[in-house]
Specification:
The complex is a heterodimer. Chain A is an all-alpha fold. Chain A has 32 helices and no strands. Chain A has helices spanning 7-24, 51-57, 82-105, 149-157, 161-174, 179-192, 203-208, 225-232, 238-250, 254-267, 273-281, 290-307, 313-325, 330-345, 352-362, 373-382, 395-408, 411-422, 433-450, 453-463, 472-485, 488-501, 507-519, 526-549, 562-572, 582-594, 605-618, 621-634, 638-651, 655-663, 666-672, 675-689. Chain A is elongated. The N and C termini of chain A lie far apart (109 Å). Helices cover 38% and strands 5% of the residues of chain B. Chain B is built from 13 helices and four strands. The longest helix of chain B has 20 residues, at 221-240. At the A-B interface, helix 2 and helix 24 of A face helix 4, helix 6 and helix 9 of B. Chain B: One of its GO terms (molecular function) is structural constituent of ribosome. Chain B: Residues 171-243 form the Small ribosomal subunit protein mS35 mitochondrial conserved domain.
Chain lengths: 708, 338
């Protein structure tokens, strides 16, 4: 051309053009990574528009300290409990919904489009700002709106079911609808059973939607619009038959579905594999009894082969679905295995949902232990990628981990399942929020029970609280594990976790935690001991706070039991400094015990006796007196002995002298003894005789003498 | 309210109070006048008095939970404004009087204002480069120096991409396309070169030998790129065509002073012939093709006159002319003026 580029390069260019042309024709030449002549650039490596973004995103791993990215990364806004996680995510989505609602209601306000690039609007046809359908207001249809077939097509394509019905009714009243559109509408109605689905853009709503199990009852709307449209179609095409039969079978209108299928066969209408799959999945509704049902199933399969219809992976799933719904037992299990073998011959890979039904069939809670999970996992691990093809695919992982935890109790298998879930982007198969939490419940439980402690701790650190917040039952399991491992440090942290997870009001867990703390308190480091004491003190404080908050409410608040309070006293009394704030906590707890704000009586009264002695020893006679009075009032045997010993410590006299001293009448004691000692003497009498000392006694001022 | 104002008499404190009460739902001094108590429907007072101390359970900063061997790229994967609870660094920033410590990272707007590059730490850049390496092809081996690149790829296209946060991601300046090419790399003869220079006008820079074409008239970059390519192609081919009227080019149309074609040469040749006592009448073409090197200092004179006309009158060129003329005529050298 016009420049002095060497001829060699021109040849390279020509080659380039030739290659481009040849790849256009469909013959792809191998892409060279090297330049041909050392000057012209090599051919570009083909990539999709998002490949680079995906490659960059793949470099980012999981940060266990961070919340999910849908939440704000700020300590005040990171949700720490299941309730808050749900509330925050749904609130954000409610905001988006409100915005959409306003956009749809006030559609006339949202017609302007940004003129891009910013210039004068001289060229009305040129605007680089892309037109995004999702951002434009949805049309609203009512009885007055004038509709055309295009509107119907739009509503059907966007799965706006209610709108589609409205438009169809309007159209049918005026000009009628052509058969093609009728068929599409019929397909839409049959797929959703005339119920408006949750929009695809409401991710959070779908994620948190209560995962109630689908009712296995005939929910198909008999004589509904779908039936009417089908009746009005003439001639009835095979597609229409297939659609209607599949819709009926999907919503358990089994008998009519089978009747229609018979009718179609008699008329010579060809049916699809999908129709047979749906018929197979509801074949059990026709017959009673396992033998008859199996016969019907086999009959349908032979009918399929007679018609010359080849089965696919969904056929296997449908068969197993039916079989697993009929209960358990040897016969059904054998049939399931036979079908699996048959499909293996046909080189049809079972889907995740097929495996789910197999697990349902074989791993019953009260059945024999059958390990089919190992072979299933081996198969799945060897697959390149797991694709979701059926709605029930998302049930596989929770069932598999549940089998590991309850049925097989095998930590190695559980780890394999978890590794499979974490591989590539298999995590999409976890389903929804409900299934995810069940999954982690099983995983944490089986890990706590069967894994070595280091591994458990690692898993807990990884999961809690951002990925998973344990439910009460799992929390108990965790506390048990920590107690066995003697991890005082972690146990002390569990209390603060309980508070933020919203579980601190559950007295059962708190009591279990206190027990665990007491069990492993003795052999901890001093630093951890202090942490544990603080946690115990905080538990008491938290209880009081809750009570204050709940004063006006009718529902009574649960209170810590006497044993738990005694545990708190035991933990907090382990300080040798008189001025330590722990003593205040001890006093408070004793006060609650005495004023009968606790349920029951302590399991181990000797704790209180030893605390009384210790209190007397370091100069807290008030606390000692209260403890002993409580013991005496409850009628524990230890009370007398403890009284004598404590008095001995207080008055610094041997036991005999104290005994004789206690025999003296009260009037003499009043004169000679310190008020706190007097209270202890009274407690002694109470414990010994079961009645208070002769003259009027006062116990109210026992606390006031703490200062000396 | 107007009712009360109408009946308002100076000195009547009682009514004043009523007036005030009706406007406010909260009666402040109702202890003194029990009979005029205001019904407090919303119970604002009671609510205000009872203030429940709520326990706020704010978790600790997540920076404290981070392990020292974590992968920072996972924590801060993308650009984001600074957040103290996420960054485990004891950063301080802010202007303070001398001798004071700048404020810490918490609640520090100064740290949030400035853009940070916490997402582009060296290890992250390294891993990202590794990740996208699979889309890269090898650099051609022979293009190992600037000269080689210039030689094989003489055409240079300059565009700018803009990245900013605003409702639209497009910037009108991104459409501007500049094309640069060295004149010497184009395959041109003398005529074509002259014509091209006349066509491109001031788009040619003599110092760098670059022709620069810029287009911003179309709304899209692609269109502008096509347009500059078209401009270069059109100019190049136009330069090679010779039109009929180009033969009518006169001495006055010359873009530079050609000594051979001018009167100065004729004068020199005539003078030379007179000096050697030859009387020959020469034609136009003979004058043009006359070899001046036979004349003593003739070449020098030619260069001096050409540069005087082509480079313009400057002290240097005039001095050159002066010396050339003195040498030619055998005059003594110019004495410096004292």
């Amino acid at each position: 051309m016009y420049s002095t580029i060497p001829i060699q390069r021109q040849w390279a260019r020509l080659a380039h053009v030739c290659r481009a042309l040849s790849s256009l024709e469909g013959h792809k030449l191998p892409v060279g990574r090297k330049s041909i002549d050392g000057i012209s650039p090599p051919l570009r490596i083909s990539r999709s528009p998002t490949d680079i973004l995906q490659a960059l995103a793949a470099t980012v791993g999981v940060d266990p300290t961070a919340p999910h990215y849908k939440y704000h990364d700020d300590p005040f806004l990171i949700p720490q409990s299941n309730y808050r996680k749900r509330a925050y995510a749904l609130s954000a989505e409610a905001g988006r919904k409100a915005a959409t609602w306003i956009r749809d209601e006030q559609a006339h306000l949202f017609t302007t489009r940004e003129w891009d690039p910013p210039m004068k609007m001289k060229t009305p046809y040129f605007n680089a700002d892309p037109h995004i359908d999702a951002f434009t207001p949805r049309p609203i249809y009512n009885d007055e709106s004038k509709v055309t077939e295009e509107d119907l097509l739009y509503t059907i394509n966007n799965a706006l079911l209610d709108d589609a019905i409205k438009v169809y009714q309007l159209l049918a009243a005026s000009e009628g609808v052509n058969d093609e559109l009728k068929l599409s509408l019929l397909q839409l109605l049959c797929f959703y059973n005339e119920k408006e689905p949750i929009g695809a853009e409401w991710l959070e709503e779908r994620w948190f939607a209560a995962a109630t199990r689908e009712r296995q009852a005939a929910t198909w709307k008999l004589g509904g619009l779908a039936d009417k449209i089908f009746a009005s179609m003439d001639p009835k095409t095979p597609e229409a038959y297939c659609t209607l039969i599949q819709g009926m079978a999907k919503y358990y209108q089994a008998e009519r579905a089978h009747a229609f299928a018979q009718e179609a066969i008699e008329k010579g209408v060809p049916l699809s594999t999908g129709v047979y799959n749906s018929l197979l999945s509801c074949v059990g509704f026709l017959k009673e009894g396992t033998a008859l049902r199996i016969e019907a199933l086999k009959g349908l399969l032979t009918e399929m082969s007679d018609q010359g219809i080849s089965p696919n992976a969904d056929t296997l799933t449908a068969c197993l679905r039916s079989i697993s719904a009929w209960g358990g037992g040897q016969i059904l299990q054998t049939i399931a295995l036979q079908i699996m073998a048959e499909f293996k011959e046909l080189k049809i890979q079972p889907s995740l949902s097929a495996y789910y039904y197999m697990l349902c069939l074989f791993c019953k809670e009260r059945g024999q232990r059958i390990d089919i999970l190992t072979s299933i996992l081996t198969d799945l691990e060897n697959r390149e990628c797991l694709e979701a093809s059926d709605a029930m695919d998302t049930h596989f992982f929770i069932t598999a981990i549940g089998v590991c935890s309850d049925h097989l109790q095998d930590i190695n298998l559980a780890e394999r399942v978890h590794a499979l879930l974490m591989k590539d982007d298999n995590y999409k198969l976890v389903g929804d929020a409900y299934k995810e939490s069940i999954y982690y419940r099983h995983l944490v439980t089986v890990t706590c029970r069967h894994a070595p402690f280091e591994k458990t701790a690692q898993l807990l650190d990884m999961l809690i609280p951002n990925i998973y917040v344990p439910e009460p039952s799992v929390m108990e399991e965790i506390i048990k594990t920590l107690e066995v491992a003697g991890a005082g440090d972690r146990l002390a942290e569990v209390w603060s976790q309980l508070v933020v997870f919203g579980l601190a009001k559950r007295i059962k867990i708190v009591e279990q935690l206190l027990n665990a703390l007491c069990q492993c308190y003795t052999y901890q480091d001093d630093e951890i001991k202090e942490k544990i004491r603080n946690a115990a003190a905080d538990m008491l404080k938290f209880g009081q706070l809750i009570e204050e908050q709940n004063e006006n409410r009718r529902t009574p608040t649960q209170q810590l039991s006497a044993t738990a309070l005694a545990n708190i006293i035991d933990l907090c009394a382990d300080v040798n400094d008189k001025a330590d704030p722990s003593w205040e906590v001890v006093g408070e707890a004793l006060g609650r015990l005495r004023s009968e704000q606790a349920v029951g009586v302590p399991d181990k009264p000797e704790i209180l006796a030893s605390v009384a002695k210790k209190a007397a020893n370091i100069g807290k006679p008030g606390i000692a007196a209260t403890a002993l009075t409580y013991l005496a009032e409850c009628g524990f045997e230890e009370a007398t002995k403890a009284c004598v010993e404590t008095l001995g410590v207080m008055l610094n006299r041997p036991t005999d002298e104290v005994q004789t001293l206690l025999q003296e009448p009260k009037s003499a004691l009043v004169a000679s003894l310190h008020p706190s000692a007097l209270v202890i003497a009274e407690a002694f009498h109470l414990a010994k005789t079961g009645a208070p000392m002769d003259s009027s006694s006062s116990d109210s001022d026992s606390d006031s003498s703490d200062s000396d | 309210m107007s009712l009360f104002i109408k009946h308002y008499r100076p000195g009547s404190i009682f009514k004043k109070q009523i007036l005030w009460r009706l406007n406010s739902s909260v009666a402040e001094n109702h202890e003194s006048e029990e009979e005029f108590r205001v019904l407090d429907i919303l119970k604002k007072r009671d609510k205000q008095q009872k203030r429940v101390a709520r326990r706020i359970d704010v978790p600790a900063d997540r920076a404290e939970k981070m392990s020292t061997d974590q992968n920072w790229g996972n924590v801060w994967p993308g650009p984001r404004s600074f957040h103290p609870s996420t960054v485990p660094l004891p950063i301080r920033q802010g202007f303070v009087p001398k001798g004071q410590v700048p404020p810490g990272k918490k609640a520090n707007a100064e740290l949030m204002k400035i853009p940070n590059f916490l997402h582009l730490t060296p290890p992250v850049i390294k891993t990202q480069c590794e990740a996208i390496k699979k889309f890269c092809t090898e650099w051609p081996k022979l293009l190992n120096s600037e000269e080689a690149i210039e030689k094989h790829y003489p055409v240079e296209v300059i565009t700018s991409d803009y990245c900013h946060a605003s409702p639209t991601i497009r910037n009108p300046l991104a459409r501007v396309v500049t094309l640069r090419v060295k004149l010497s790399t184009l395959n041109l003869d003398k005529h074509a070169k002259d014509k091209l220079l006349r066509l491109v006008g001031d788009h040619y820079d003599e110092k760098t030998d670059l022709i620069t074409l810029t287009a911003d008239r179309c709304p899209m970059r692609r269109q502008n790129l096509d347009y500059v390519n078209y401009l270069l192609t059109a100019c190049y081919h136009e330069a090679w065509t010779v039109e009929d009227w180009e033969k009518e080019k006169m001495e006055a149309d010359m873009e530079y002073y050609d000594w051979n074609n001018n009167q100065s040469k004729k004068n020199l040749v005539n003078w030379y012939h007179k000096c050697i006592n030859k009387d020959i009448a020469l034609s136009e073409d003979e004058y043009k093709s006359f070899d001046t090197s036979v004349i003593d200092h003739g070449e020098e004179y030619k260069l001096a006159v050409s540069s005087l006309f082509n480079d313009g009158e400057r002290e240097e060129t005039i001095n050159n002319y002066d010396t050339a003329v003195r040498k030619l005529l055998g005059l003594p050298e110019r004495k410096p003026i004292e």
